[in-house]
Amino acid sequence: MFCFLDEAPVIFRDATPLIMGMDTTKNPMLTENQVTYSSESTLSSPTTLLRRRASLLDRFLVFCLPGNLQDLPAIFDAHFVLVLYKKNMNGKESEIEKLKWVQKFYTRIFELENEQKRHSLPVASSPDALLISGAIALPSSLKIDPLKLLSFGLTNSLRIPAFSAFLQCNMDKKIIITIDGWSSCGKSTLAKQLARELGYVYIDSGAMYRSITLYFLRNHVDWTNPEAVHEALGHIKLQFHANHKNGQSEIFLNDENVEYVIRDLVVAEKVSEVAAIREVREYAVKQQQEMGRKKGIVMDGRDIGTVVFPDAELKIFMTADNAIRVQRRFKELYEKNPNVTIEEVRANLEMRDYIDSHREVSPLRQAEDALVLDNSHLTIRQQLDIALGWVKERL
Ligand SMILES: Nc1ncnc2c1ncn2[C@@H]1O[C@H](COP(=O)(O)OP(=O)(O)OP(=O)(O)O)[C@@H](O)[C@H]1O
Ligand SMILES: Nc1ccn([C@@H]2O[C@H](COP(=O)(O)O)[C@@H](O)[C@H]2O)c(=O)n1
Q1: Keyword set for this entry (predicted)?
Q2: Complete edge-to-edge strand list for the sheet that includes strand 248-253
């Protein structure tokens, strides 16, 4: 993949370019060996330089950076300006488009800033440092040892801007990502992160079945009676709304935010029974398919790759050792309620997995074309990196 810049904005023309090439065909988690860089001071225009190197750097992402290493972190993001100018705006951006884009860019800058803080690197605290208008806004106050910064950039931080730039260049193409698998193996954790990284919508299909179960429990619906189920479904409205405080999408049952209450074991005890009812599934699947009509969606559940989106571009089947899944869920529930026991959690997981994989309608199973992700011994970061690699192959 190669992002070509026909016309570098004026701000970059006089800069001494530093060219970085990254093999994007490899795992996006770049190591120092996968990154090559060279400083070229003889050429006056980065555009010329990129053209000259285009053949060499085919399949590579190219960053064109003004040469002042001290400003490297800001410039990492500044180069997106270049890439996006050409690729997304096609040189015709209106002021409004530019503004919209700037807002998105701010989010990226904040993420990068947090990343730097996590690595105990100093960050410019002045609001000016977050301005994104490329070289114009480089924070003059940023004083970081260039060598430290470079190694930081290569080993930790670079992967993020590299991937973002890749995505931005392939923004036009949106795909559907499905994540199915056993209870508590990390599906929603991965799905949320993928959606955030890709700017996609995240839908937790399990939350829909949990909300229906909550409604049935609260209203004493006899779900063994098909007529009662039919009648009750007619009174249920499910919606997902973004919570701007935590950036998460949350489920609303008849206009009430039930995101928290549906995670209770009381609901978990009954949800698999309710989710096995044919009419309940038809009700939920219809809405899920509608949500994916425009693509650009990550949905997790049990039948998403097999029934809801059988033609999805990327299907992931997640799994992890039973004991590890029980431990993870126990830790999570114990923080909310110290009365919960590990035996209760284990019994619930085993019971749900059994019902989910043995029911007649849409049982949990791995789609033939799904990629298996066993995260028993992966960190949350590692599982995201693997999945991002798969996304990249499909864009
Ligand atoms: N790779 C990982 N390493 C350690 N903990 C993880 C990992 N992935 C997820 N977790 C943790 O495991 C717990 C279960 O994760 P999550 O809720 O994402 O699972 P899930 O598959 O969506 O569960 P459910 O099927 O019940 O919806 C959470 O506390 C989450 O933080
Ligand atoms: N596509 C789906 C999603 C979920 N279920 C059922 O809901 C239960 C809760 O789901 P979580 O993802 O929140 O754990 C789950 O155990 C299934 O019974 C489903 O059937 N299909």
Answers
A1: ATP-binding, Cytoplasm, Kinase, Nucleotide-binding, Transferase
A2: 238-243, 248-253, 256-257
